[in-house]
Amino acid sequence: MNPAEFSNIANAEDELWWYQGQREILTTLIDRQLASASIGKVLEAGCGTGHTARLLTDRYGWSITALDLSEVGLGHAASRGLSTLVQGDITRLPFRNGEFDLVISLDVIAHLEAGVESAAYREFARVLRPGGRMILRTAALRSLRSRHSEFIVERQRFTRAEVISGLQTAGFRIRFDSYVNAFLLPIAWFKFRVWEPLLSSPPASGVGRVAGWLNRLLRLPLALEARLIAAGHRFPIGQTVLVLAEQPQRQSS
Predict the structure, then answer these.
(1) Cα 106 to Cα 139: distance, rounded to the nearest angstrom
(2) Partners of 180 in the beta sheet?
(3) Where is average pLDDT lowest: 42-51, 101-110, 243-252?
């Protein structure tokens, strides 16, 4: 990812509607799907500024190893008081087989060259214990590529079917899958496919503060999506793919 984006994210992610909404959807998924799971050691593969690792540590008491390729990102993560930080590549994880109960990777694989995500999936499977879980979130739909995508060096976007197929090939069993950030999809499509081309705008960060009333308004659709996911609903299309997968138990011989 463009190193310049880390500061933009760190300055906005506490309050900006997108981050607030995605956190609510994520914790709703965890509360619904992992309430009875035995989770001790967690890897966040691509921790960014460390905001999510800090949140999950405080909320669930998990022991989280936060890994990122970027020294800039890890510097932000260190400022949040995270103690187990590792610089590394998600396609070559520096951990033992079966070391973690849960792997979380949020908005990372879109930065890999096309096809390289398969290596990341295999590594996620390798470092999970049998029966371990993985939560993966990534940008969806190539038609939503934007000037923000260019700025952050987003190299690809995915359909839900592509993500599921790749994870299954790596040996995962899918337990939950859905598009999210669905209700705002028409607005996003108009912005990225009509408005931005009309303006001929150069690549630029889409992360920044917005007026309080607008921030609250944009937050509402994601809050509703979180409640619907809690009720078992799945969305057939959206701006993001969210998947919970399981590393199957090994068969005894």
Answers:
(1) 9
(2) 240
(3) 243-252
- Coil, strand, or helix at residue 174? strand
Q: Are 241 and 160 in contact (CB under 8 A)?
A: yes
User: CA-to-CA distance for 94 and 82, rounded, in angstroms?
Assistant: 18
Residue spans of alpha helices (H) in 41-116: 51-60, 71-79
Extract the tokens encoding 249. Answer: 């138990």
Tell me the average pLDDT across 117-124. 98
> Would strands 240-246 and 173-180 be described as parallel, antiparallel, or unpaired?
antiparallel
pTM: predicted TM-score of the whole model, two decimal places: 0.94
Domain boundaries of the chain, sorted by first residue: 4-246
Which candidate, 233, 137, 237, 138, places its Cα nearest to that of 184? 237
How large is the average pLDDT for residues 189-212? 88
Tokens representing 114 are 């096309």
d(CA 125, CA 166): 12
**Residue 161: enclosing H or E segment and its boundaries?**
helix 160-169
Reading the block at residue 25, the tokens are 């959807």
Q: Distance between CA 94 and CA 87 in Å, rounded?
A: 9
3.40.50.150, 1.20.1090.10, 3.30.70.1230, 3.30.300.30: CATH of 4-246: 3.40.50.150
> Kind of pairing, strands 128-139 and 240-246?
antiparallel
168's tokens: 């299954």
Structure tokens, 162: 């592509």
201 C-beta neighbours (distance < 10 Å), count: 12
